[in-house]
Batch of 4 targets.
Target 1
Amino acid sequence: MRSSLRVRVFSAAVTLALALVLLDGLWHFFSWAIVHAIWSVPRGADGAPDTDLCRAAIGRGACWAVIGEKFRFILFGFYPHALQWRSAIVVALFVLLFALSLNPRFWRPALVAVWLAVLALVAVLMWGGVFGLEFVAADQWGGLPITLILATFGLALSFPLAILVALGRRASGLPVIRWIAVAYVELIRGVPLISLLFMASVMLPLFLPEGIDINKLLRAQLAFILFAGAYLAEVVRAGLQALPRGQQEAAAALGLSYWQATRLVVLPQALRHVIPMLVNTFIGFFKDTSLVLIIGIFDLMTTGRTATLEPRWQGFGNEVYLLLAAIYFAFCFAMARISRLLERRLNEPHLPIVEPA
Amino acid sequence: MSGPAIRFEDVHKWYGRVHVLRGISLDVASGERVVLCGPSGSGKSTLLRCINRLETHEKGRIVVDGTELSDEPRALKAIRREVGMVFQSFNLFPHLSVLENCTLAPIRVRGLARGEAEARAMEYLARVRIPEQAGKYPAQLSGGQQQRVAIARALCMQPKIMLFDEPTSALDPEMVREVLDVMVELAESGMTMLAVTHEMGFARQVADRVVFMDQGEIVESGPPGEIFSAPRSPRLKSFLSQILHQH
Ligand SMILES: Nc1ncnc2c1ncn2[C@@H]1O[C@H](COP(=O)(O)OP(=O)(O)O)[C@@H](O)[C@H]1O
Ligand SMILES: [Mg+2]
């Protein structure tokens, strides 16, 4: 009894101490981010913002004015100013697409068609050159659309690739296919993503025939698809291995072809088993897109960093990086939510994952 | 077609260096009901699984419903359509409802319309006496109910031949009866059946012939009365005495 009382007093003391530390930290943050924050700065005689006010407040209050001045550049990079509405629509489309995919009511085969349509629309809006839209070369794209494009196209294309590779690794009668699948996974996994990106941006053009020039973004996108495909393939393979052999045999005995059995019996079960691992890989991959910084593609991370390089705004990186963190968090959190929803739904056997067509 | 439903001609199979089928020759006539028995590891499952080519054989010929088994995909497809199989471990598709389990192959392989496939599924679910479970998922059913669904699922393809691989050995004793009753009824309807089972009561009741296998060979075969009351080979005698001790 005495000792249990002592334990309780001790744990109460620890809880209290932790709460105080936490509160103190929160208060300091609140004081910096809200109470002493500078929300806007006056403009000098030349029309340029005068950041003296912010400089005076460094260390005491946040300078949110940098966000107000720079948010269009951070979000859209060097996309022509007058056409940035197109970039904005692209971001909105992606957000809408993710929101739609979050709702179990829409988990039906038609969602795949919606995804394809949105991805096509994104390409039209970004590039233009059709329907009277002015053409914008890919090296002018930047900011959030780049991050979302790299991640979304990357996942949408690497996932089917991963499934094919995982199936190929188990193709017992086709040693060549199995060998190619193994070599692909092991090669890509054994190399850092950064070196893959370098290879895609520097070496790939050397191997291409004269006159053919794939733009840098497309090359980076290719590197991402290959990279994510290898990791996802291993996750999918784990799901395939967890499936009892009897499932495939029962499907074959009923007369289903290999592809019918794979599509209707094997994959729906195998993928269910590995949803948390899949989403985990997706989230990691979303954040890894920021590595394109090193080959000079202006994704969200790069535009944010570039914004703080302007002499006038130097020293206000914290504010910009907080904004970037908030944006990355919002997207990753949404993916985590999808994962949780899916898992909950799968624990109720009477709820199908996908409504029958 | 007046040939046998299934014909094995000197069939051999190896797993690596293990010789598991050693010269099997066996005819099963159309409408005949054959029970296959023998000690564990004697090759009964392997023999059964060669018939719909879940396993391949290395030597000899297997002819099913007039078509010889080979790597030719069209022949294989034709044979699998006509041969239904029931496994020891049920192998229902857990992500599909009972009704969907039963309509999947008729729709995808036979090309039936959904309505037609569902009507047929309900008919066979009624025959195995669980029409009220059509909307449930396999995990919500007992073992006996799952095995009856598996039988209905195979029957929905309206096969000419049904294969059973120890359909009751994974079941709790109180559920064996309900599955055997369904199998007896099916046997009496004139279906060609090849069943691996140690349920001697079932064999006596419906089998036209009992085939005894040991170490990859057919040792003895004949009507159930003869096999059970007047075994000739010592191997069959010792097998029967073991079975009787168990029961
Ligand atoms: N996939 C396999 N790989 C290797 N050996 C196997 C395999 N399946 C079965 N065997 C072997 O083949 C023999 C016959 O097995 P099986 O047909 O399952 O016998 P039964 O059904 O009569 O118990 C056994 O010795 C078994 O160990
Ligand atoms: Mg067996």
Target 2
Amino acid sequence: MLKIQNLSKTYPNGTQALKNVSFDVQDGEFLVVIGLSGSGKSTLLRCINRLIEPTEGKIIWDNVDITAAPPAELRHIRRKIGMVFQQFNLVKRSSVMTNVLSGRLGYVNPWTSLLGIWSQEDRQRAIQALDRVGIADKAHSRADALSGGQQQRVGIARALMQDPKLILADEPVASLDPVLSHSILQYLEQLNKEGITVICSLHFLDLVHRYATRVVALKDGVKVFEGSAKEIDRAKFKEIYGEEAQEVRAASL
Amino acid sequence: MSIETATRRPVVRSGIASFFLPGLGQFLLGERYRGGGILLGFVVMLGTTVWYGKPLWYAAPILIWLWNIWDAISLANGRARSILLPLLFGLAAAYGIGWQVVEIDFSKANMDRALAILRPMTRPDFVQPRREVNQMWVPVQVPCSSQPPAARREDAGRAAMVIPDCGGVGETLIVNVTGMWADAETNVFWQNPIGNPLMLGEGEITMLTLTTDENGSLTTTIRVPSTALVAAPDPTLPQFHRVYFEQYRPTGGYELSFIGNEVLKGALATVSMALMATGLAMLFAIPLSFLAARNLMSGNPVTYAVYVAVRTLLNILRSIESLIIAIIFVVIVGLGPFAGMLALALHSVAALGKLYSEVIEGIDPGPIEAIRATGANWLQVVRYAVIPQIIPPFTAFTIYRWDINVRSATVIGLVGGGGIGFLLIELIRVNNMRGVSAVFIAIAFIVIVLDYVSAKLRERLV
Ligand SMILES: Nc1ncnc2c1ncn2[C@@H]1O[C@H](COP(=O)(O)OP(=O)(O)OP(=O)(O)O)[C@@H](O)[C@H]1O
Ligand SMILES: [Mg+2]
């Protein structure tokens, strides 16, 4: 279980991206974080694996305080947390295979990995991961030769290499069209069904309704809603997204 | 009535103001920048023409001055004139003065001189027909001793002799050689005891060339060269000089000529000079580029100060032509490719440092956070997220720099930096235009090939 307690983040320039946010995530949940652009979703997800250092508060995962972990232990924790990004964050000039293998970096011998040497087992694992997301044939292409949807699948395969217990997905489908969005989210849903907890930020409400087991909404860094997707009625929606907002449906695009 | 006077007064006033001081009318009408600009333009134009001192160009400031009055009056009437006209006056004057300063004079061109240079250049001295040589010599004593030995010599079926057996400077001798190749051109020349050849032809500055008869024999008279004893420590001491007979004949095929060989050596020196310089520069530029990357260094005031210092240093270095650095290094380490290499390296450190640092600044932070998120350590992040992003552009820029350095290396030779440029300036000095032409062709070849290779290599790295 992941416990987020009184989490706050103030950037060096004074922006308060998160204000005293607390909630729990049970194992096996598909938790979706929603909120307007700039509401702090990315900051929240990055605080969980400390890509961003929280200013205050605690994050406790299976009784381990992530926020207090020293560097070596933090790396140990991170390798159990896969991460998927809106911009895919692949190394564009490297091959798909290398990108996927790099998901294994937390496990392998650091020195051999620096030489670019990978065990047969890890290579096998990488092919399997690519196979799961349906692009095993692209293993030897350069990452930037792939379409957006394919690149995101490489991103998921890289996260899979970590053998994760938790996947953080920061707007994984915001750069993709609605059809691709569903196919990517279905992979995450599949992983979730296999027992991996997923925390995912999303923009489109119909996607939220379709995939979320629970929803947390942020507004200006403050948690304004926590509950099931069904509970987001017109009033709640206006509260989260503001008076002017109109619901946009990805499926209707 | 009152409206009319109200409008006319500023018209007259502005016109008069601008008459006395260009731009003043406009200034008084509230157009301060326009007024200031007109005054500045006028003063600069006037200053230039006065300094240059050719009355014709006074037309430009005068026209600008007239336009300025017209503009002031128009402006007072509410309509500014286009500044295109005074700009054109100024430009025309500047261009005209420039033409005269550059001393453009096509009548100076001399076709005969041009042809004298260009004609030998159509036959670049790079290869020559392969040939074999048939050489024979005979000793002769100069000046005569009381008992001169016989001036005869036999060797491999050939025999040569001089009559009489000795002689003084300017005296006439009969020389004879037998057993040479038949009906072949034969060079006859003198060699003093220290091994310097002296000519025996017209005025002692041309080669004496004769043809052997059908038996391979040749007889002629020569004069002991006037300079035969110049190098002798004691001109009264009899010493042995030699008369040489030399024949050549082609054996088919071609071989590198002496100059051709030098050109090849020079080309190799130039390319490797550039290669060494680029490699050396790369070693220094890589660490410097990290210090000159804003995104890495803007974190705290100390690193930022280092960043500013390194950037400034690189910018200053980069602004000094490598040719000028070469002149300094020639003084420090002497003539030769080493000086040129150091100059190129120093300039390249600055150029590469800047290019590399821009690569580092343009690095995508996305992969870095992605690799950090996998639990990788710092070195692994550098290896898997940073290096793949910077190696290809670094390599591309380095190859590009090598390409540029080869071009510069050819020029740097001209100031004594070694390589093919040095050969070129030597050949120009002794007016060997066939050699010069060979060098030109070699340079063009190197540059074109390298351009192609570097473009191809870089294409693969993008
Ligand atoms: N590195 C940073 N330095 C300063 N301010 C930042 C930084 N990163 C984010 N912010 C600010 O923090 C706030 C929250 O940003 P965050 O990226 O977490 O929002 P988000 O909900 O992910 O938005 P989006 O939907 O656009 O991705 C914003 O006001 C943003 O401008
Ligand atoms: Mg975001």
Target 3
Amino acid sequence: MSNVVSLDSIFGLGELAPPATMPAAPEAASGCSSSSCGLSDGPADMDPAVWEKVKNHPCYSEEAHHYFARMHVAVAPACNIQCNYCNRKYDCSNESRPGVVSEKLTPDQALKKILAVAQEIPQLSVIGIAGPGDSLAANGRNTFATFEMLQKKAPDLKLCLSTNGLALPDHVDTIAQYNIDHVTITINMVDPEVGAQIYPWIFYKHKRWTGLDAAKILHEQQMLGLEMLTSRGILVKVNSVMIPGINDEHLLEVNKAVKSRGAFLHNIMPLISDPAHGTYFGLNGQRGPTAQELKVVQDACEGGAKLMRHCRQCRADAVGLLGEDRGEEFTADKIEAMGIVEYDDEARRSYREHVEAERAGRHASKAAAQADVRDSVGTTVDPILIAVATKGGERINEHFGHAKEFQIYEVGPGGAKFVGHRRVDQYCEGGSGDVDTLDGVLAAINDCTAVFVAKIGGCPSKSLAEAGIEPVDRFAFDYIEESALAYFKDYAERLDQGVVQSRAGQDAVIRTGALTARRA
Amino acid sequence: MAYKIKSAECTVCGACEAECPNIAISLKKGTYVIDPAKCTECQGQFDSPQCAAVCPADCCVPA
Ligand code: SF4
Ligand code: SF4
Ligand code: SF4
């Protein structure tokens, strides 16, 4: 029975079209409110069929994103709409970051690249097509050609695609046919009045539409496509770009609308806007949200469609674990030089078995650490944010100076949960620390109480402490959540004694210029 | 009577190629071009030239 209740909170029972695989459930409570029904919890409170689909998918499971790698291939350059935050000289910014140009590939080149990467990176579990335009524009020709070959050559890899949704209803059957069990739709509005401020035009049924008409058609197609996918049991993640002053509060409506149509995850991402990108918004001074503004909207949507907070807005040709990008190692020239690569899933299989074994132990130890905090700390202490330097594997295993991003955890009496990430410049790129970069890091994690690192030098340590952020290396190489809970227990005691002060009310800066990191 | 692509502004996305009802558009030496012999400006087929309607760079124009 508990299974049924939590399914409710995962799927959001469709008023319109519940997923075909879902059992008829009672008008149950809106589900649990704490992170205990998060995606990371696994089989205990998730339909096993769904868990099977998401457990190794870095974008669909917060837990998996610590362990598994994805790869995007940029085979779809055409698009069928215009977004005000997009400049078509660059990649689509629905999935990717504005101002980034991916290496376009033909389906044949893409296949070759995928096989080569799969051989090098055993963590690889997912191949996605996210542009650089819309994966379903121009009839989705390259997208489906790539999937067709892939399904034959490397059947163990999961396939997913991203779309703005305009052409989605026409392609749902094809999507189902290729066993694509994850689709991302970017939905920024459910009200054409709002949409008209985001989309100047669309191309639909051989015609260019503008204004309210355009937004209305796009909205209807998005909702229809979403319902068609969920009714076939295909998992749908909805991306929304948060645009302050245009759709920030409206995103709550979007969250409700997509939840009621069975969306599995809702990912609210910040608008990244810069005049240098030459986008309409960039040139007109439309700004992106601050870290706290983003968190306020994300928190308000919690309890609706399950939120995703680990999206990195990767490039359309990103390769590797989320937060890293090894694309440079696999450019078309380098792949060409590698010659023919054979398909062999041995390494990937044994890696997946290893993760499977580790998972079981982790669920138990997290629960124990959480119980300890619950018993020893009252419920009156406010949660705090902790920045973590990690290379993956859910461990604190990165040097402060080498971190290209910090993962942000919120920890409180209710437990520890991942709430986001902040990209920074590497503080000691090339060996010596530089003061400007350190200021950038401080601004990016200014709302955090502590920063967990594997190692940190004396200078940055001192600057952090002066800024009121405690550098902590005593949990080096330990698991993140357990360490965060242990730290919180200690913090609550010190707060009680008046030795530390709460950092509530601090905000942080979301970097605009940063791209998903390229390895040097 | 034909359309042309202002190649300096073209992003080489290929959206126009997929929409042209007369297969008049193709990729030549890294940029898309319209074959004036095949282009009908979409007359009798659609309300407006399809390449111009879909082009994100607005670079498909009367020749
Ligand atoms: S863009 Fe978001 S959804 Fe896509 S791979 Fe990156 S994190 Fe996952
Ligand atoms: S105007 Fe019509 S026929 Fe001519 S190139 Fe454009 S789409 Fe093709
Ligand atoms: S649609 Fe426009 S930008 Fe794209 S290839 Fe055709 S002419 Fe170039």
Target 4
Amino acid sequence: MPDVDVDVDVTVNGVPRRARVPARTLLVHFLRDNLRLTGTHVGCDTTQCGACTVALDGVAVKSCTVLAAQASGHEVTTIESLAPDLAEITARGGTLAAAGSRAAGREPPASPEPVSLHPVQRAFWRHHGLQCGYCTPGMVMMIRQLLADNPDPTDAEVRHALAGNICRCTGYQNIVAAALDAAAELRGA
Amino acid sequence: MFPADFAYARAGSLAGALAQLDAAATAGDNVKVLAGGQSLLPMMKLRLATPATLLDIGDLAELKDIAADGGQLRIGALATYRDLQRDPRITAGFPAIADALTVLADPQVRARGTVGGALAHGDPAADLPPVLLALNARVTIASRAGTRTVALEDFLRGVFSTDLADDELVTAVTVPAAPAGQAYEKFAHPASHLPLAGACTVIEVQGKAITGTRVAVTGIAPRAFRIDLPQRDLASRSVSALRAELADGDSAGGPELDAMLAGALEAAMAAAGAEPLADQHASGPFRVHLAAVMARRALARALSRADAPAGADE
Ligand code: FES
Ligand code: FES
């Protein structure tokens, strides 16, 4: 039997990580199970839903359809890197709202908008762009890619960019609204 | 879902990859080449493919180049769909390729999927093969013994079957300069985004006359195939007559042209001895009908581009 394990040497959110795993390990499982970065979700496992979207060398891909071995020597960015201080706090059991305010050095206000979230995440907050939240990490990572490629997308362009991201809750309306609002904020409009 | 166990090797150079393929072919080892993996990995997860070894060529920078040479474009096998979509030489010179990329899978898949991988995979319902067929593309293939070039027409064989030998790699696809009158239209399965039928049309126009029409279709036969419409079918019509016929879209001019196109597709399939594809999604005759409608719509869009000044399209 040939060796079916492989050394994976990958930079994840700026931190070099290394592990020896079975070659068939998918990147999403490597992130979740080996590195405990569970912000990246597995929805379908069949390249359809986009919940597993991460950036590989800066470009959004579906991490259920990339081998961890293929990412070796490359750079992966996950949802955790978008608001790192909050990821840190929520990992210790704090709530997002309280964490957001604390991260900004304030007491939690009554109806808070977490200030240190990524602009796309903040727009989701404002527009209620999520319900169960399962698709959200993938949606945010894909919209981040869209806005890098096209800072001023139309409604139709946002929907086209989200062709590979499925949401079973929201009906997409508020997700699209959030994407357009985040685009405006990032453009300084 | 996991693929079955396999050994993983990453190629550091094209020569190294070819040597490894050569050794594996001699030893009879079950090696699969991994490019972007957007077709192969899903098949492996379903255990429809269980290679003993994956040879990952994804990091071979020498296969990623897109180079213009006169009007012709040499596309490295590892150029991704996303690379093509962002290349102005594609969007300006080959609008039919741009059409296909817009409706192919989704952005994340397009960021990984490669041109060479798509061709080597031989999926009978893929978007790019009909476009490249209609554009007279040629495939460059390397092995340890050397390099050869084959017309895509001769490269595609059947369902997941191509002219590629076990010790060979697709290294590039070359597309000659093409007339502006070209377009791709598909009828997508709503869940998979794969074409139930898709058609690319390239139309050559000289003054008021149509001097040539090539149509290539996907999704309806074991491989994408191409028909050159006989003069009597289209070329006898003047550009303005054809435009008038197409102007009414799916209503007035549609049925007559659709019947002509469906007849031509059926005749070509019968001549090649190709059985129409049929599955739970669509029967053979329905796919042929869809392909004819897509071909007519592609014809209308191609014609609108044929004499539009560059950059004035859409
Ligand atoms: S889990 Fe990767 S696309 Fe659904
Ligand atoms: S918010 Fe529930 S799946 Fe999108």
